[in-house]
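subagent[fold] <- orchestrator: predict structure for attached chain, return tokens only, no commentary.
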Amino acid sequence: MSKLIIKNLYKRYENKGKKKTDKNEFAVNNLSLECEDGEFIAILGPSGCGKTTTLRMIAGLEDITAGDIYIGDTRINDLHPKDRNIGLAFEDYALYPPLTVYDNIAFNLKAKGVPADEIKRRVHEIAPLLKVEDLLDKMPVSLSGGQKQRVNIARAIVRRPGILLLDEPLSHLDGKMRQALRTEIKRLHNEIKCTTVYVTHDQLEAMSLADRMAIMNLGVLQQFGTPMEVYDDPANEFVAGFIGEPPMNILKTTIIKHENDFYFTFENSELRILCPRRYYDLLKDGMQVKMGVRPTDIYVGGPDSKGTPVKVAVFEDLCAERRIGVRVGEELVMMITEDETRYRQGEQIKLEVNGEKTHLFDLETGNRIRPKK
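subagent[fold] -> orchestrator:
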């Protein structure tokens, strides 16, 4: 096992058509992370956020513009990829068609001159972990996508790397196979205890697999924490809207003071939500901010509810849960309920919001507004 440390990492691609004053000048912009021995880290973000570029710099496949990468106490910036003790599995399986599964897994060991007996022992040790022990004599052309990816990952970890890098390994698989292989990757990590960095744009993959997640956008690290920390305590509007399915509802609101209390109010809507008292020192009458609330913290009120009457705009029955969309002004607000009641479009319900679970974001920067300690 090895500790991975990234310090003030930058990557800029030379592009003659791009001005130096462009906002997104760097593909990776001042990234710092620490991944502990045996930890599973997910780098998560939309396309173009810099996650794969970061992985390729760790692997030595991209030059570093500035900053440092350490594995343990060793600075690896100038080490050749083969000398970094890294296992790498890409989204493309890249198996060698003329070779059997056994020879594909053993390829790197043979290239390093590992004795045949040791190669055989390692391949037969790793094959059951990836459930490919019955495929060793087969050719890649006869394998399914899931089987090819298992072989791809087996080839990466048979080298016993200090760091295992996985770049969108499930992206080419169908939904059912993705779920099955995701479970296998988690089980595998728990067995081999290899420090792992997993790149994905799929938040479900990241939250189900990772000990901690690094959320990136436009090359910049937005937040680094456990899945629960990121979900419950987002650092900014981007993270709040990116994590969660459906994502957090984020609405522009005007703070109104009535007697001794503050309320969230919304344009063209009768909805009023009592502001949590922890924010009172920050609030002013007429202040405009963005208010965020998770769909699970919005409810359909009962017959005696004092909630705001609204009409159902969207209803989705997913069996395990139901999703209801209503209009608050011009914005569509989603809620999740386990209530088995089916609603029709246009049907009136009473909307209740747990004000204590709301989050505030700066209208201009999108940064989280936090209560004073």
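orchestrator: received. Logging for downstream: The longest strand covers residues 249-258. The domain at 4-242 is CATH 3.40.50.300 (Rossmann fold).
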